[in-house]
Structure prediction request, 113 residues.
Amino acid sequence: MKLIIVFFIFILNIQAGNLERELSRMIGWTIVGNVEIIGTIDEGKEDSMFRGCNGKNIIVFSNNLKALCISYELALEIRPTAIIFNKNTTIDNREVKMYKMLVKDTIYNINPR
Prediction:
């Protein structure tokens, strides 16, 4: 029993460490919302699961918005909540608005559609 409790605390510390590391990369970004992910579209095939990002799949949100996920990080979640961040920056003298989403303890680069 004691071994199970120690293992559980160890797993929680790993997850908290991942989230802390991911959020430390978000300094200067603004939280603009949170929304539930209801599925993905990959090569025209719809899926009701969030399977992470493969660099070309579309994330479908519960508010009917969609975003191209340009990161590569796999996951497997049923209707997770995404916290959406944005940041204004200038690239080649042009104003650019960048977006990211945090799902569980992973940050993904997204491009709204």
